[in-house]
Amino acid sequence: MKLEVMYHCGNAPKMERVIDLTIALSKKDIDTVKTHVREDFTWKIVGENHVVKLEQLSQTLTTKPQILELIVKNALSHGKGAMCEGIMTFNNGLTYEFCNIVQFVNTAKDALIKEAHTYFIKT
Asked: DSSP characters for 6-65?
């Protein structure tokens, strides 16, 4: 997978964590996902009718098309929330702009993610 991540100061742990989670989900790397999330983590792709729990995540990701290119253009964090946005190109030829919004357990810099909502818009 081709990967391009915006330049950032490297001094925003939660911003880095949302980027790392987005990359891990894109690569379908469950082991890395587990290092960033709580055991009761849930993921919702906005517009789909279900919420995926951590124990279902591996199976759910296998049904998604492979991502050939991920570009993270922007990321922000504040308090218990963080987001990153950019562009994903899939192996089926489709390109989507995305925004991945996460909520952390608390405001600590090493807090784990308890939920994520991902929005996709076909370009």
From this structure: ----S--HHHHHHHHHHHHHHHT-HHHHHHHEEEEEEEEEBTBS-EEEHHHHHHHHHTSP
Structure tokens at 79: 């308090």
Contact predicate 85/97, CB 8 Å: yes
pLDDT 10s digits, 65-76: 999 999 999 999
Q: Where are the domains of the chain?
A: 2-122
Q: Which fold has domain 2-122?
A: Nuclear Transport Factor 2; Chain: A, (3.10.450)
Contacts of 108 (CB under 8 A, 6+ apart): none
- Reduced to 3 states (helix: H, G, I; strand: E, B; else coil), residue 79 is coil
Q: What Å distances lie between residue 53 and 21, 56, 76, CA to CA?
A: 15, 5, 25
What's the predicted TM-score (pTM) here?
A: 0.95
Alpha carbons 97 and 45: distance in angstroms, whole number: 13
